[in-house]
Structures are given as C-alpha cells and as structure tokens.
Amino acid sequence: MTVETPVRFSPLDGWQNTFERLPEGLDIREIPFLTQLSLRVEPGSPAARAVEDTLGIALPGPSCADMSGEVKALWLGPDEWLLVAPPDRSQDLAGRLRAAIGDAFATVTDVSAQRTTLSLTGQLTREVLARGCAIDLDPRVTPVGSCVTTLLAQAGVSLVVRGVGASSVWLLVRSSFASYVATWLVDACTEYRGGS
C-alpha cells in the first residue's frame, strides 16, 4: 500500500501574479510554510536559559524580534515568543527545545499552519501600511527589530520591522485572514499605479 504525501497549499496560492503587478516602490511576496513554534516560558528562568542556549540567541524583550539567525524569535507577550524557522523544521526544532527544557515549566507548540508570512519591501511600504495600521512606523518609534501585534485593516497581524524606516517588514497573518489582507494591500496601492 502506497501512502501519498498530502499536498500543501498556501493560503495565498495564486496571488504572486497579482503581487507582481503592484506599483514600483512596493514588492510583496508570500513566504509560505515557515516553521512556527509558540514558546511559553518565564523570562530568565532555567527553562528560558535552556531555550536560549539551544537556539544560540537571547530571547528578545518587549516589542522586539531577533532576526539574526536561522531561527528567528519574535516577542508576542510577557512570557510568549514565536519561533520562526525554515520550512519542515518543526519536529526537529520542537524536539530539541523540549529536550533542553526537560521537566521545567514551559511549553513548545507547533503552530506552523496557523499563519502565513508576507514580506513587504520598498519605499512605499510604510506609507501603504499607514493607511490601515495605527502603529507609528517612524524609525524613531519602531526601529529595525521592532515586533508588534496590531491590527491592519481590522485583521490581527504580527508586524516585524526588518529595514530602516519600515522599508522592509514581515506581516504574519492568520491563514484565514490572508486573502483579506492581500486584497486590502493591493487595494491600498491603487493611487500609486498612475495611469496603469
């Protein structure tokens, strides 16, 4: 008996052609199927130190993200982080973290199917996001490495600033809202298309 591997579909499968027709100054692409693990642990605890030793990074503080390594750590709350890694790493990464934590009080949960990631780059990024997001993306307020959970056009997102002046950001959006957010972003670019 042959067992077929299930086919995975991104929530934004088929959107890349639409994203390619956006005005100059904004590039959007989906980064599908990233490994995403929810980490709940008391900051500074032995379990947190074990996680940090395993990842080779310090868990970031409030409203910050560490995007330097292969495994990115995004602060989501006082004792909660989202660990983001390349696709198909969830079992290995979760296993290593759980082994490091041992019997200490902490949880590692695979939430990879919960969200997809949109990468936005270009000089229009900040201006377009400002049309539907209350977060001030001025670099003095949200410098590179900022990570905030907010609303974009009434959809919950985690926004990570990756470039100076929010010229490059990641939007992590729940899969069920991904098409809505993509539609909103395309619509928010209408006035920048000129005559096209």
Walk me through the topology.
Elements: H1 16-19, E1 27-31, E2 35-41, H2 46-55, E3 65-66, E4 72-77, E5 80-85, H3 90-101, E6 106-110, E7 115-121, H4 125-130, E8 147-152, E9 155-161, E10 168-174, H5 178-188
Antiparallel strand pairs: 1-7, 2-5, 2-6, 3-4, 4-5, 7-10, 8-9, 9-10
Helix pairs in contact: 2-3
Description of the molecule:
- The chain has two domains: 16-32 and 114-193, Gyrase A, domain 2 (2-Layer Sandwich); 35-110, Alpha-Beta Plaits.
- The chain has a five-stranded antiparallel beta sheet. It has a five-stranded antiparallel beta sheet with strand order 3-4-5-2-6, with helices on one face.
- The radius of gyration is 18 Å and the shape is globular.
- It has 196 residues and is α+β, with helices and mostly antiparallel strands.
- The mean pLDDT is 95.
- A hairpin with a 2-residue loop joins β8 (147-152) and β9 (155-161).
- It is 22% helix and 30% strand.
Beta-strand fraction estimate:
25-35%
| Strand count | 10
From the N-terminal CA to the C-terminal CA, the straight-line distance is 54 Å
* Overall average pLDDT: 95
Structural class: alpha+beta
The total of helices stands at 5
Low-confidence region ranges: none
Task: Name the overall outline.
Answer: globular
CATH class type of the largest domain:
Alpha Beta
For CATH, the homologous superfamily of the largest domain is named as Probable tRNA modification gtpase trme, domain 1
**Major sheet strand order:** 1-7-10-9-8
Spell out the helices and strands N to C: HEEHEEEHEEHEEEH
> Which fold does the CATH topology of the largest domain refer to?
Gyrase A, domain 2
Helix content: 10-25%
Which architecture of the largest domain does the CATH hierarchy give at level 2? 2-Layer Sandwich
Oligomer: single chain
Estimated radius of gyration: 18 Å
Q: Tell me about the largest β-sheet.
A: 5 strands, antiparallel
Whole-number tally of structural domains: 2
InterPro entries: SoxG, TrmE/GcvT-like
Organism: Streptomyces coffeae
Protein name: Sarcosine oxidase subunit gamma
